[in-house]
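Before relying on records like the one below, remember that each one covers exactly one chain. Contacts with other chains, cofactors or solvent are not represented anywhere in the record.
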Amino acid sequence: MSMRAFLDESGTHAGSRVVAVAGYVISSEDLPLLEEQWLAILDKHSISELHMREFVPPHGKYSGWSENEKRAVLEPLIGLIHSYSLVGIGAAVEMTEFMKTTQARAFSKSPTLVESPHQWCLRYCMIQAARWADETEIPGLISYTLDQGCLHRGRIQRHFNLTAEDENLRQKYRVGPLDFADSRTVPAIQCADLLTYEMYKEADRMLSGSPRGPRGSFLALFRGSDRLTTVDPEPIRRQVARGIQIQLACLNHLPYPERFQVMCHALRAMNDKNREVLFQMLPPMRSVFAACIAKGEMGKRFEDLPKELHPSDEYILSKIDEFRDSSKEP
């Protein structure tokens, strides 16, 4: 039996409390049956493609529908998912102050060293899928299909390639081929959209401290065998710290005065909260900042230093390769 995981994302908009990636592992034998019946249900209700956001007021196309009308569509679709999917997988990461500031800044500055929240969720989905396959003793690799409009498509492809190149990791995490598809022509991605949306809404409810219970649609969709989890923030912090350490290693090629100037500029450019997060990850930087203040050093941007002081491309690539060797695993 060949298996394919269809995944979608939610919560990637500005101000979101959580980012989620989720979907379903489906066998190649059941996929045509699921998609044929899925399209028939949508056609019955004059819906061309299921996007849960279209049911959300005030701008959703179907936001004016009554609860009974929505239920008439969703209940049979959920029944199809339960009948034809092998397992649901999903991961969510809380967008804490650290994620919104320090991690986001590190990702924007060093996207080859630091992964986005979306990429972290995808990692955890792959881990959950592999564990499920191991525990159920189903052999074979798991192929992956993501929506073609997903974030950081190129980076996701590179990470998959990196993992697949290592035969031990490829077998350990059951990593099969990756492709991207249009949800309009691949209804299984619409199934993923439904789970991702419900997982996002449930995680957001829990983080908000709302006294309301879980949504009825989430309870109807979720099965005890599904693998929904949250992303541990510690590996994310270590990844950010590792990226900073690589940058510091590159700075070590500079003469001390210029190295001190660059670090002072970077530290002064951060707000108090972000600096404190950095100090917690790399305690020696607190002393560096204290020296900046004591000496009145405002600092200088690395880009403004003479080119002859920059480390060679070969040295920088060697440090990046060291980091990638430690980041191959999902």
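Residues 2 and 237 are 36 Å apart (CA to CA).
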